[in-house]
Design a protein that fits this description.
The chain is an alpha+beta fold and about 250 residues long. The protein contains 6 helices and 14 strands. The chain has 2 domains: about 100 residues, Phosphorylase Kinase, domain 1 (2-Layer Sandwich), CATH 3.30.200.20; about 120 residues, D-amino Acid Aminotransferase, Chain A, domain 1, CATH 3.30.470. Helix content is about 25%, strand content about 30%. A hairpin with a 4-residue loop joins strand 4 and strand 5. Helix 1 packs parallel to helix 6. The longest helix is centred in the middle third of the chain and has 23 residues. It binds uridine-5'-diphosphate. Uridine-5'-diphosphate binds next to strand 9, helix 2, strand 12 and strand 14.
Amino acid sequence: MARRRQIYEGKAKVLFEGPEPGTLVQYFKDDATAFNNQKRGVITGKGVLNNRISEYLMTRLAEVGVPTHFVRRLNMREQLVREVEIIPVEVVVRNIAAGSICKRLGIAEATPLPRSIVEYYYKNDELGDPLVAEEHVTAFGWATPQDLDDMMAMALRVNDFLSGLFLGVGIRLVDFKLEFGRLWNDEEMRIVLADEITPDGCRLWDIETNESMDKDRFRRDLGNVVEAYQEVARRLGIMPEAGPRDMKGPVTLQ
Ligand code: UDP
């Protein structure tokens, strides 16, 4: 069987050429990395869960008018997406202090923030994705002021919508990271949500116990990583049909 051409391999996903021009296939791996690649591991079944969770969240967001690159899920580990030009800026939205903001600003973990805070990080592995200001983003031409306005507005809409969605299933959306891309249509360009929305790039805490249900379980060696992702999927009502058995074993690539 002819293998598709691989376009890019990232830490948790591989991108293949799609079936039509302007499309790509996103393949979700079980690999996990943390602390700028210093910690690596394999979380068996994570890719299947993330593929399904991202499909669900991107679809729900599209329903409320947030444009995304997502087209459809193809199989257990793959989804069809539109090819976009990724903007090299990671947008982080925070509702509650956790992770790097605690260290940087000396805030105790779990402190509610006075309002949602949007931060920009320059997407550059060699530099460890440094925090940057809008000034850097526009001065270096990574995005225009108009692009940034669009990204900020979309990030806040995503935050409002997802905070409510997760709250409804007993999960606090503490923070999350988004990536955006430029989608070209003839001469017109619009910015759409790209990449993925999964527990790999979100902090999700159980509303009752504040237990982490996200990649912090891997970062901090808390154990039961895939079980936590499974619980997120279960609460969202989207556990893969045949249950955990589906998450193991080889997956046929078309
Ligand atoms: N995040 C991410 N990719 C990154 C950096 C951060 O997905 O390269 C997510 C992370 O999972 C968390 C949020 O963005 O949900 C904020 O991360 P933070 O800046 O606190 O960094 P961390 O403590 O994760 O290193």
